[in-house]
Fold this sequence. Notes:
Elements: E1 2-6, H1 12-15, E2 20-22, E3 26-30, E4 45-49, E5 55-61, E6 66-73, H2 82-96, E7 106-111, E8 120-125, E9 128-133, H3 136-140, H4 142-152, E10 158-162, E11 178-183, E12 197-200, E13 203-206, H5 222-231, E14 236-240, H6 246-253, E15 258-263, H7 266-279, E16 286-290, H8 293-302, E17 307-312, H9 324-340, E18 342-352, H10 359-372, E19 377-384, E20 402-408
Parallel strand pairs: 1-4, 9-10, 14-15, 14-17, 15-16, 17-18
Antiparallel strand pairs: 1-3, 2-6, 4-5, 5-6, 7-8, 8-9, 10-11, 12-13, 18-20, 19-20
S-adenosyl-L-homocysteine binds next to helix 6.
Amino acid sequence: MTTIILKPHKEESLLRFHPWVFSGAIVRVVLDAKHKGDAPEEGELVCVQSSTSNVLGVGHWQVGSIAVRILSFGSDSLPADFWRTRIRAAYKVRESLGLVRKDNNTFRLVHGEGDNLPGLIVDIYADTAVVQAHSVGMHVCRTEIADAILAEVPQIQNIYYKSDDTLPFKAPIEGEKIGWLVRNTEIPESRDTEEFWSTENGLSFRIDWLRGQKTGFFIDQRENRALVERYAHGKDVLNMFCYTGGFSLYALRGGAKTVDSVDVSQKAIDLVNINVAKNFPDATNHTAVAADAFEYLTAQKAQGRTYDLIILDPPAFAKHRDAVKNALRGYQRINAKAIEMIRPGGILFTFSCSQAVDKEAFRLAVFSAAAQVGRSVRILHQLHQPQDHPINIYHPEGEYLKGLVLYVE
Ligand code: SAH
């Protein structure tokens, strides 16, 4: 195996189990005999050693400022049962947290660094796992990962691989980035007739990972959706950036008087209608509209429309650090527009899933929005990502979702 030798003292963060080796920490690369080129291949398994030849761990080699993502600390190779052991551990955690139930078969099984599997995401939808690689190393191992999921997660029959949007842009990828890795359930050939249903806290959702966003659903809002259910009774609710209607279904079950779901994507709105019809076939108090958020709020305000409870769950406004300033302006603008439309004594659920925007900056943007439209607000809850999206304490970058529930005077 190729060996990566670190500069003196650069082993310290690894000894504390930080999973990344930065390229600047490397003094020398000793290629193993089979190498033709003069550098390791992206995705290759490498062994990392200190300047005093201490074995620190093995991980996937990457091109870029993060040169190695460690999979196993303190050893110079991966044990044969490595993938099964890690997947089993991840599944046990979800089981022990009470997420694997008859009325809840939707959960995140693997959350990258948070599950000691840097670069890997696995979401479970009933009997299907959707696997997403964020590194070439995980892409290379996709078949072993699929075998381990099949062996360790009893309910899984099918495994879909979806990494077309998540692999590094210039990576020299061989093999498919998207498609079935395992397919046991009878699934019609025609894409248009494929129907997958998954259950979250007793509510049914049609999941479309083939055409949908991310792995098909935003599992990370599960606990926050349950909180909306608690506050929805008798209220006029607006679910802005609704995607497939997660918050809307919980609001309806919570006894909302009316629920308006809005998303710019017509495909998302079609799925909202399908999901509402499945769970609440007799509902007459739900409306779904395909519209741009800013335009919708402006138009509704002009007509004097107001709400008791508004949910704002926009896509990441800042995908990189250099976009943070603009993103904060965007958060302030959309929150101001929403707060203006909340009746006195109403509630705002507002979120940011931009990893680059920190909690403090987001709060400031939301409070500035309230001040801008002359409304005073109080914090009822501070929200974050749920327990199946754990944060590795050595990888604080894994914390991305933040939310506020505000009481609007
Ligand atoms: N709340 C959702 C997830 C929201 S993801 C849930 O619980 O599942 C963000 C959504 O915002 C996407 O569905 C995307 O289509 C939508 N979106 C992006 N830009 C938008 C815009 N300008 N106006 C309205 N919706 C937008």
